[in-house]
Automatic annotation (TrEMBL):
Annotated Gene Ontology cellular component terms: plasma membrane
Source organism of the structure: Liquorilactobacillus mali KCTC 3596 = DSM 20444
Domain Major facilitator superfamily (MFS) profile per the UniProt entry, residue ranges: 5-389
GO MF: transmembrane transporter activity
Main location: membrane
Gene3D superfamilies cross-referenced by the UniProt entry: MFS general substrate transporter like domains
SUPFAM superfamilies, alphabetized: MFS general substrate transporter
Transmembrane segments: 7-27, 39-64, 71-90, 96-121, 133-152, 158-180, 201-225, 245-264, 276-293, 299-321, 333-356, 368-387
A family per Pfam: MFS_1
InterPro entries: MFS, MFS_dom, MFS_trans_sf, MFS_Transporters, Tet-R_TetA/multi-R_MdtG-like
Topological category with respect to the lipid bilayer: Multi-pass membrane protein
Location(s), subcellular: Cell membrane
Protein name from the UniProt record: MFS transporter
Length: 389
């Protein structure tokens, strides 16, 4: 039987990430400037999409563990293709947000299944696989956000056309190259059957819970960069163009730094837990620096620290979860990784907005630092004592 080749998984990740990056940067602008809707309504649409994606992530993990990963992965990609095709012709209100949410739900199912599939690759270390997946996803973000600026000048409808073509290419690769070693749906077999008793060890569940709860808090803080920070910087007299440059720096550091970290990881076999907690500490430092940031240089330094924390920690999290979870529950726990990120992105901007409206930006940053620091310490203690066992 053919085995799954990592290169096809990476190419697929690059294509789908590039396609996704054509859509998400324009969502708020498109709804506000083209559809004439309020920023609050645009934010509500994104909040609902995040909640729907949480459900999609859970369903994707459940489906994979039941042995139906290939069928549902292809079906969910096809649903995204249909949604994007409809967006080409029906991109007004309310068709646009409805189709956007359908695409997000289908994408969450497919991404969770593909992450679980990545964890099944045997001829590479899990940390290397997820490092490379993360790297290719970020290359896709850089390409997508770079090209979208040129495409949107021609006709905003072309955004949906290009995304549709990329997803069709993604579907072809998934159909012909993605191999599910333990899935034989065609014969009516259920590979998960007989493995139900293979549960993830309790101590592993505790470690995963601690790491993912901290990850959720970090994502809540990270979401401030994508929402409330732009408003805060403008209130300090720092232009929107300078804010966008921060994301350029973020992308450059990720693209350059990720291969270096992958090389060092492969050569020196750095412990995954040391990497994830080093990344967590860097996030604490970055969020703490925002308390005192009043000029552009300080925001740039904070973004650099945040990005290094992201590059070090984020790819390791699904790798640790893959190592600690049992084979029969691999999909479920990879789904939890996606769910933690989605909850953070859903709650973060809303919580941040409430704290800023009622108190101040400084208290928002102090709250994020407190939450990330407390959960990092708790997670570190849980990991230390359960690994000793």
């Amino acid at each position: 039987m053919k085995s799954l080749k990592l290169r096809w998984l990476l190419i697929g990740n690059l294509i789908s990430s590039t396609g996704t990056s054509f859509i998400w940067p324009l969502t708020t602008v498109y709804m506000h400037d083209y559809l004439g809707k309020s920023l609050a309504l645009a934010g509500m649409v994104l909040f609902i999409e995040s909640l729907i994606m949480i459900g999609g992530s859970y369903i994707g993990g459940y489906i994979y563990d039941q042995g139906h990963g290939r069928l549902w992965m292809l079906f969910s990609i096809m649903v995204s293709i249909v949604a994007l095709l409809l967006l080409v012709f029906f991109n007004k209100w309310p068709a646009y947000p409805i189709l956007l949410i359908v695409n997000g739900f289908a994408g969450a199912i497919a991404n969770t299944i593909i992450n679980a599939l990545a964890a099944s690759i045997k001829n590479h270390e899990a940390s290397y696989v997820f490092n490379m997946m993360y790297f290719m996803a970020n290359i896709g973000v850089v390409l997508g956000t770079l090209i979208v600026g040129f495409v949107v000048k021609l006709n905003i409808r072309y955004i949906f056309v290009v995304t549709l073509l990329l997803y069709i290419a993604f579907f072809v690769i998934a159909l012909t190259k993605y191999v599910f070693e333990n899935t034989r749906i065609e014969k009516g077999e259920n590979p998960a059957k007989g493995k139900v008793s293979q549960k993830t060890a309790t101590r592993s569940i505790l470690i995963i819970s601690g790491i993912l709860l901290t990850y959720l808090m970090i994502q809540m803080g990270y979401a401030q960069w994508q929402s409330n920070l732009s408003v805060y910087m403008q209130s300090l007299g720092i232009g929107l163009n300078k804010y966008s440059y921060l994301w350029t720096v973020n992308g450059v550091i990720v693209v350059i730094g990720q291969p270096i970290i992958s090389f060092l990881d492969k050569k020196y076999r750095i412990n995954d837990f040391k990497k994830v907690y080093l990344g967590y500490v860097m996030f604490v430092a970055a969020f703490a620096s925002l308390i005192f940031a009043k000029d552009y240089l300080h925001f740039m330094i904070s973004m650099i620290i945040v990005t290094f924390g992201e590059v070090i920690a984020f790819p390791v999290i699904p790798a640790i979860v893959a190592k600690l979870s049992s084979n029969s529950e691999r999909g479920k726990y990879q789904g939890f990784v996606s769910i933690a990120a989605s909850i953070g992105h859903a709650v973060g901007p809303l919580l941040g907005g409430v704290i800023v409206e009622m108190f101040s930006y400084e208290l928002l940053f102090e709250t994020i630092v407190f939450l990330v620091l407390v959960f990092t310490i708790i997670s570190l203690i849980i990991t230390y004592f359960n690994l000793k066992k």
